[in-house]
User: Fold this.
Amino acid sequence: MAETPPPLSHEERQRLQAQTAEIAELAGGLAHEIKNPLSTISLNLELMAEELDESPESSPRDRRFLQKINTLQRECRQLNQILEAFLQFARVGELKLSARDLNALVREFIAFYQPQAEDHGIEISPHLATDLPAVELDESLFRQVLLNLALNAQQAMPEGGLLELQTYRGPDGVCLEFIDNGSGMDERTRSRMFQAFFSTRTSGSGLGLPTVKKIVEAHKGQITCESEPGRGTRFKVTLPPAEPPSDAD
Assistant:
């Protein structure tokens, strides 16, 4: 099992936030430069595909041409997904925090994700403690943590399986666990899974788990992982409880 990294100091966190802001600004310019020509290419490919589809008697040459167009369309969609994932990764900066009930956010997420889980044969089993203190959360960003962890579990269970969501109060803070009974990961994959652009899937952006880690650490939290091939995976997110409101005004 990998050792838990020490928490970031205030100065380290400030330095990372400054770096993140700079990357986000560069990413915005990059997105503008890529999205416009990519949209033009995608639109023209769509028009070409429609033209060939409408042909009443397609020749073998036209059918081969249409297959090549479809391949290019898939590549354009993949490029767009990678771009969106990079922008999401780069824009984790200043948080809009408010004291929230973590269980309520998890329940909202389960209601949102349930239809997709059922489509993939995944049973969701929540075990949410009743005595949790509030935590300071940026709701929009933390929903992305929940979604990315769920999608990671989904990809590890292509034939379906069980996904447990647990919350409880641990010695270091408020804990949230995602536990799946999927394919699991070997030591090499575990050691690199939080590295940007590392992915074991050819269609993956390699930014889902790095984005999760970045968001959790921006919340002054920690994320750890236990996994073995064939024995599933357990992600544990630990967040500090919200400070009680001061009586002094």
Observations:
- The chain has two domains: 10-90, 98-239.
